[in-house]
Amino acid sequence: MAKSNEIKHREPLFHVVKRDDMPQWQAWLIRCATILIGFLLVGILSMAITEESFGDTYQIIFSGVFGRLFEGRTTMLWKYLQEIAILLCLALALTPAFKMKFWNCGAEGQALMGGLASIFCMINFGEKLSYPALIITIIVTSIIAGAVWGVIPAVFKALFNTNETLFTLMMNYIATQIIAYYVYIEGGGSNVINPVAYGNFPAVGNNDYFVNIVTVAAITVFMYIYLKYSKQGYEISVVGESQNTARYVGINVKKVIIRTMLISGALCGVTGMLLVAGKDHSINTNLVGGQGFTAILMSWLGQFNPFIMVVMTAIVVFLRIGVAKVADTSHLNSSFSEIIVGIVILMLVGCEFFIHYSIKFRHSKKEVKA
User: Fold this and answer.
1) In a 3-state reduction of DSSP, which class is residue 26?
2) In angstroms, rounded to a whole number, what is the distance separating the alpha carbons of residues 274 and 65?
3) What string of DSSP letters covers 133-165?
4) What pTM, to 2 d.p., does this model score?
């Protein structure tokens, strides 16, 4: 009688398996629960570090974001909406490229070049052009500057299949050095350009941020319609799903890549314009403040839907401003706010991962050989 030899096959410790489509209501229930847990965690961590009570911690957070809103003072509320607008505009700018699976990590540089075009026009044409002509010049040049800076890596990708992630990151560094050089020259070696009085966007009802907020609101609606209902939006989706399929159905993939990055860069240029002409009235290398990278997460967490991005951006900005107020009140390092926001974003990313994937752990499998 032959003896059976048992051969034990070892599998990996675990492997990731894509889930079947989860019902939307269930996915959103998980997301809402994650956000709630994140807010609770913010309060617990802040309370533990600052030794404030749980209620006082949230009172500081809300006062840091909204100020004395209940007393009719809306200054802080408008500043909050302004911060949402800037981060949201960057996220909207990145969305067409990301939906096409073109990993545009150059929002910082594209926004800086848009801001550079704005400040150049404000300084050099401020006294030469009428106000309406100056504003039109600022808008056009900022859009062109951002679009050009965005289309350069797109052309190389379309023609030579270069790595767009590395290319756009390097373009950020080039843009930063160009801004540093311009500020040094224009500032007379002081590395500071004083706020420019010409070409600033008008205040509406003593509100300096109204134009910025309305502009981004209009862009949000436009991008939703463009991505969901236009032919170009459809082509972006097809190219993102499969370039081979896109070619098979007659879509010019190279043209779509270049056109989409023109739009993405142009919207980043608009963001730079809003920061310079609508907010700071000056420029420096920290104009965007790293928000171009946060915008990548906002676009992804918003599932490339502009209206969902509004919600995600509002949450992140709320935490960033509110926890910064907690840190300031308790004399903590300013990095405390970024750490807390980073933890919450990590939770949201993990939430999205487990909505779409599950982890299967190893189990022993025996095969009997006669």
Assistant:
1) helix
2) 21
3) HHHHHHHHHHHHHHHHHHHHHHHHHHHH---HH
4) 0.91
